[in-house]
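Look over this today:
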Amino acid sequence: MRFVRNNCDANWANTKVLLGARSVGDYAEPMLNRFLNVFSASKPGPLPEPDDKLALAALMVRVAKSDHHYDLAEIKRIDRLLARIYGLGPVEAAKMRALSERIEHAAPDTDRFGHIIRETVSLEARLAALEALWEVVLSDGTSQPEELHVIDAAREAMGLSHADSDAARALAEAQ
C-alpha cells in the first residue's frame, strides 16, 4: 500500500512541475465553472400565444415530425413556405420555424392549431394552409400514415372537407 501512495505522490509532484508549480485547482475550477454554467444557463422565456401564422407554422412542423423523421428537406420546405406565404426573408422564416418548433412541442393537440386558423382566417386562407401542409408531407417524397392522420385532424379542425383536402393535395403535387 505504501508503494502506491509513494507512486501517487511522485506522479503528483511531476504533475506540479509540468504545470509550472500551479495547482490543479487553478485549471479545474474554471472548467468546473464552465460545466456548471451549461446546466444553469437561463431558460428560454415563455412561449407566445400562437396566432394564425404561428399556428400554421406549428402545424407544418407537427406534420413533418409525425412520421418520426424530421429531415432537412422538410425543414427547408417549411422555411420556403413561411417565406412565401408571409413575405419573410430566409432568416425571419427560419426564426419563425424555430419558434413554431417550440410551440408545437409544448402544444397538446393538433386541433388547437386548426381551430385558431379556422377562427381567424378566411376560407381561401384555410385552403392555402391545407395546401401548405400537403407540400410539407410531400417534401420528402413519401406520405406516411402518421402524416396523413395529422393532415386529416388539421383539415377537420380547420372546417374543411375531404374534397378540399384532395384539391389541396393535387395543388401541392403540382408544385
Remarks:
- The longest helix spans residues 2-18.
- The chain is about 75% helix and 0% strand.
- Confidence is low (pLDDT under 50) at residues 1-5.
